Amino acid sequence: MPPRDAHHRATRVIVTCAAALLLFTSTTSAATEVRPESGCWQLEQTPLGVGLVLGASSGGVIDALVEKVIQLRRATTGTPCPFASVSIDFSECGEQGVQFCSDPLWGAPGTFASGATIVFSADANSEVRIRVAGHASASPAAATLPPCAQVYVDGAVAGRLIISTLDLDGHNGVDAVDLSRFLAQRFSSYGSRCDYNADGQLDARDLSILLRARFAGGSVQSCSPN
Questions:
Q1: For the segment 88-119, what is each residue's pLDDT rounded down to a tens digit?
Q2: Angle between helices 176-186 and 204-216 (to 10 degrees)
Q3: What is the SS3 assignment for 160-181?
């Protein structure tokens, strides 16, 4: 594992916008490849896939700590895909103990929510900057289910994201209660909603991310789930 935590800066992901090849890269793992199987995309796990952390907010702005940058490229030519759309469907995530919120909503012009999906737009440089608010639900954080969020690029299936959340009780943003709940999860069983770097373990790296959110001041308000 590289020595620096990926969540100390925005995560960068490269995604193709044509039906040929999809690459996800981040500062925590080598590039992972998505290969076409039976007309859809199947994400290769390394070890669990690419993660997205749901954040709390301050002053109606989602914590920048959870920002993910997606860079779009065409598979065959490597050329950019300016102004493409990236949709994230959270409809299956309740089973894993997380709920997303569309209020507050953050993103470039053209960002909108529809049902359980948030749609983001790439800019002229083919980059999509994503921040999503959310918190834990009452249901347990299942360890055996696959990454719950389905990703689409310009309407084509592009892979899945494992979803975690900093706000583990849905009240008062990230505070001492959330730290207590994280530690309880840490010393009982694995739960993906606390795996902030999506490495398949709950350890000091995840705790350090939560502590940064707790004391940095950007995660003081909880959101209302969809």
A1: 999 998 888 889 999 999 987 778 999 999 99
A2: 170
A3: EEEEEECCCCCCCCCCHHHHHH
Q: Residue 209's CB: how many other CB atoms inside 10 A? A: 23
| 221: in domain | no
Paired tokens of 144: 């055996």
- Residue 192 lies inside a defined structural domain of this protein: yes
pLDDT category of residue 42 using cuts at 50, 70 and 90: very low
Residue pair 106/51 in contact by the 8 Å Cβ criterion: no
Give the residue numbers spanning the domain of 54: 6-216
Asked if residue 153 is part of any domain, the answer here is yes
The owner of tokens 């993906």 is 192
Which helix or strand (DSSP H or E) is residue 39 part of? none
Q: How many structural domains does the chain have?
A: 1
> 3-state DSSP call for residue 20?
coil
β-strands 50-54, 57-58 pairing: unpaired
Picking from 160, 74, 86, 75, the residue whose alpha carbon sits closest to that of residue 123 is 86
Cα–Cα distance measured from residue 96 to residue 149, given in angstroms and rounded to the nearest whole number: 10
Please give the structure tokens belonging to residue 152.
Answer: 């689409």
65 φ/ψ angles, rounded to the nearest 5 degrees: -55, -30
Total residues found in the chain within this entry: 226
